[in-house]
Design a protein that fits this description.
Layout (H helix, E strand, L loop, with lengths): L15 E3 L2 E3 L3 E6 L6 E6 L3 H18 L6 H17 L1 H11 L4 H20 L8 E3 L5 E9 L2 E5 L5 H14 L3 E5 L6 H12 L7 E3 L4 H10 L3 E7 L2 H13 L5 E4 L5 E4 L5 H13 L11 E5 H16 L19 H16 L3 E4 L14 E4 L6 H4 L6 E7 L2 H8 L4 E2 L1 E5 L3 H10 L4 E4 L15 E2 L2 E2 L4 H6 L2 E9 L1
Parallel strand pairs: 7-8, 7-10, 8-9, 10-11, 12-13, 12-18, 13-16, 15-16, 18-19
Antiparallel strand pairs: 1-2, 3-4, 5-6, 6-22, 11-21, 14-15, 17-20
Bound molecules: NADPH dihydro-nicotinamide-adenine-dinucleotide phosphate.
NADPH dihydro-nicotinamide-adenine-dinucleotide phosphate (NDP) binds next to helix 7 and helix 8.
């Protein structure tokens, strides 16, 4: 069955979603489709007053509903109902996700939306299984570590996989007994708004999940600074992550989870399955047109296999079918905006001037919409932007190495440490290299997350702080209280 849809046929949700209803306002933000540049809608922008209304509604909903103090099984039941509804409404959610983003409808339907449902279910199950700890003390005392939710969590997400990121934030925060006010990217608000509608239909008390639309400097900053936000969970660029951390420090020393950018290496040794490595490497940099935080954008190949790897990657890159996100035969989506496309071009131009050789791509596609060609560069100097900066586009660099030491040194990025890939059939070498790679995740003979949500995700160094997914994400949404009783 074809998943393609007519972009004019969608009823787009408008307004902020607060207290179980849409709140309209002057429509000042224009939302466009990157697939062909058409204007989709105008939506309102939440200023500090609207953010205050959303946070107050969440706080009142927490108090009235007893969400934090109810039998945890009751939270599990509601969250499972939400996951069921997400699956039942997958077609609508996926279309709302696809239309303003770079997510092809096929991947949004069978991937992102289903992953969001899985994440809600996965975290629901922690609610009545994670226990507080009794600690060893003398017989005359009893000590234990109790945990409690923070209250209202402020969540902010990026535009690259909006519905999956909403699942990351919402699942653990709600399961742990908090309310959530979420600000999606102003470029991709629709699927998150519909998710909030579904949450109310699933039985989540109105106000426990509110969505405010707006930009980072107005809405995002007001949300982080709000005195009733107990914890901040952020996904976006390192630049914005720094601003969020400063803001959270200035306004209450709030705990922050920061999922930020990366410049991840993929290291291929000569003993690896080169065909597999080429497929994995190409898939990660072409998926979402390279607009993925974990995109393995720096390939390091052992000298004897570098040319073969290069040839295989170029063949795969030339086979893509660019097209609009609403056409399910599309294998290669657009760049989110013209601004982001210009940034990619500028990085390429500066790197070329510095000596980088463009083996394939290096320009936009000659077609309507913001499409950039899959690009492979070699011989780029270490200090050139294509080696140092997160491009967030379909741009791969290839370097060679001659020893394990050289591979480990070149793999290390001066600031980022999000993820890394390793291709080898030598188990001992893999185990040695895993220790040497400076990253929050290492994939061996594969590249990219699976649907094993038990594996936490999060970066080292400037790639972030704290974890999303896994048990860590649930625990990060509760704070502990040490109790000691003299008997
Ligand atoms: P941005 O940092 O530009 O924006 C992310 C979100 O933060 C948006 O909702 C944005 O609002 C908001 N924002 C921006 N500035 C502030 C601020 N000062 N205070 C509060 N909120 C703010 O990132 P992009 O949306 O361009 O997303 C791409 C980035 O996200 C890449 O760097 C990518 O690596 C990273 N990312 C990381 C992931 C991870 O798990 N590590 C996963 C996915 C993406 P608005 O845009 O509406 O103005």
């Amino acid at each position: 069955m074809s998943l393609s849809f007519d972009p004019d046929s969608l009823d787009l949700p408008r307004g902020h979603f607060i207290d179980g209803a849409y709140l309209q306002g002057p429509d000042v933000i224009e939302v466009f489709a990157p697939s062909d540049g058409r204007k989709l809608a105008s939506v309102p922008l939440a200023d500090a007053r609207i953010v205050d209304r959303a946070v107050a509604s969440a706080k009142t909903a927490l108090e009235r509903s007893g969400w934090a103090g109810c039998a945890p099984r009751d939270r599990v039941r509601v969250l499972h109902a939400l996951a069921d509804l997400i699956e039942a409404e997958a077609t609508t959610l996926a279309r709302l996700e696809s239309i303003s983003s770079s997510r092809p409808i096929g991947e949004a339907t069978t991937g992102d939306v289903m992953v969001a449902a899985e994440q809600i279910r996965f975290f629901a199950e922690f609610a009545d299984k994670e226990c507080d700890a009794l600690v060893p003390t003398s017989e005359a005392q009893m000590g234990f570590i109790a945990s409690e939710p923070y209250g209202v969590v402020g969540a902010i997400t990026a535009w690259n996989v909006p519905i999956a990121l909403a699942g990351w934030k919402l699942g653990p925060a709600l399961a742990a007994g908090n309310a959530v006010v979420l600000k999606p990217s102003e470029m991709t608000p629709f699927s998150t708004l519909y998710l909030a509608e579904l949450a109310v239909r699933a039985g989540l008390p109105a106000g426990l999940f509110n969505v405010v639309i707006g930009d980072g400097v107005t809405t995002g900053e007001a949300l982080v600074a709000h005195p009733d936000i107990g914890k901040v969970s952020f996904t976006g660029s390192t630049r914005a992550g720094v601003a969020v951390m400063e803001n959270a420090a200035r306004n209450g020393i709030k705990p922050v989870t920061l999922e930020l950018g990366g410049k991840s290496p993929q290291v291929v040794f000569a003993d690896a399955d080169i065909e597999l490595a080429a497929k994995c490497i190409t898939r990660t940099i072409l998926s979402n047109a390279g607009q993925g935080c974990v995109a393995g954008s720096r390939v390091l190949a052992e000298a004897s296999v570098a040319q073969e790897l290069c040839d295989r990657i170029v063949t795969l890159m030339r086979a893509v079918r660019p097209g609009p996100t609403w056409d399910d035969s599309t294998t290669f989506p657009p760049i989110i905006s013209e601004g982001q496309l210009s940034r990619i071009s500028a990085i390429l131009d500066t790197s070329r001037e510095a000596g980088a050789q463009v083996v394939c791509g290096g320009a936009r596609f000659d077609r309507k919409g913001s499409f950039y060609q899959p690009t492979l560069v070699t011989d780029a100097p270490e200090e050139s932007p294509v080696m140092r900066e997160e491009v967030f586009g379909p741009v791969l660099s290839l370097q060679s190495f001659s020893s394990e030491d050289e591979a480990a040194t070149k793999a290390r990025h001066p600031t980022y440490g999000l993820s890394s890939g390793l291709f080898t059939r030598d188990l001992s070498r893999a185990l040695r290299m895993i220790r040497r790679l400076e990253a929050g995740t290492v994939w061996v003979n594969r590249y990219g997350r699976s649907r094993d949500h038990i594996l936490p995700t999060g970066g080292w160094k400037a790639s972030g702080l704290g974890k999303d997914l896994g048990r860590e994400a649930f625990l990060a949404n509760r704070r502990t209280k040490s109790v000691l009783i003299d008997l």
